[in-house]
Amino acid sequence: MALFHPTLFCFLSVFAGASSDKLVRLGISRMYVESPPGWRKLVAKLEVDNEKVYALVDTGSPLLFFLWRHSYGPSCQNLLYGCYECSPKPCQAGPTKTFSFHDDTDVTVFRHHGTLSLGSSSVRDIDFGLVTRSTGVPWASLGLGVQTGKYHPYTSLINQMLAKPKSQRLIESTSFSLYLTPDGTSGELLLGGQDPSKYDGPLEYIRVVDREEDEIRVRGLMIGSRQMRVTVVSYLDTGTDALTFPTSLKQPVLYLLQTAGQTLVPIFEHSGTFRIACNNMAYLPTMTIFLEGLHGEDIALRLPPTSFVDFDGHTCFLLIHFEDKTEEWTLGNPTVIGHYHFYEWDKSRIGLAAVR
């Protein structure tokens, strides 16, 4: 039986937002996708040819794919993402292609097409992949990353929607936005633009320094009032469930998290995770990541402890990984908690603001 978060309310609708954008709105939430619970993934609920499925909301890839029931069989009932099958079954598998990701996982898919239901509307003849094999915990993906030639012949959902005849288009722009409430339990993905009524103040824009690789640039990290200056490539990747730093920062980051708050907070490493006593979470310092703006200025992304600490039913742990294979940073779905992100890949910029 799949694990469902009790506070999740998912919906899809077509809506003209406060910015006059033609929007498609999807409810999103951070949810456990495996049993026993691991780390929460940012997911949306979709319906494909009347099959109810979930998909990872992934700004790090443009791929749209779902799990094929023929490949995963009875295990589908234990996967939050669910599985898709043709009617009559099974689907006729075509040529496959394997895609590899930054976290050393990969999926092998073949192309299929179907109708994607969006509330009271639907989009016919949407191409997507069906997964025949994957490494790690199987997952489905709603990819929002930049479309490049290396993904051929697969095309993102947004680009396919825009390729429809004008009279059939539900959106008119490749831009999109997403946000989560400060408690991280619910939010929205808005395809086609933004809704300014959902955030406070003007958006502050960070620069996408390499659009084909979805790269941004980090210029510093402040924990409490202690600041470290760096210049490093980073990814704002909602398909990742943590903040990933290079191993070279492990000692200073953990030291400052323990000492730069209101009082000393012991952190214990256990089986690759960093744990704290839950009653100490309020004493941890805020983490502020400085990102490079459009004109070289610092744009501050402030993460209170509620954004980078989670509870698995037994213990509280930091949503932080340290990676020894790279000096790059990956800023995962914790950065969306309490924040509004507006992506304009065609303008090489991402707008950030606090959720209203």
TrEMBL record:
KW Transferase (keyword) present: no
Family named by the database record: Belongs to the peptidase A1 family.
Organism, scientific name: Perkinsus olseni (Perkinsus atlanticus)
Domain Peptidase A1: 42-353
Signal peptide: 1-20
PROSITE patterns: PEPTIDASE_A1 (PS51767)
Keywords: Aspartyl protease, Hydrolase, Protease, Signal
Protein's recorded name: Peptidase A1 domain-containing protein
Molecular function, one GO term: aspartic-type endopeptidase activity
GO terms under biological process: proteolysis
Keyword Hydrolase: yes
InterPro entries given in the database record: Aspartic_peptidase_A1 (IPR001461), Pepsin-like_dom (IPR034164), PEPTIDASE_A1 (IPR033121), Peptidase_aspartic_dom_sf (IPR021109)
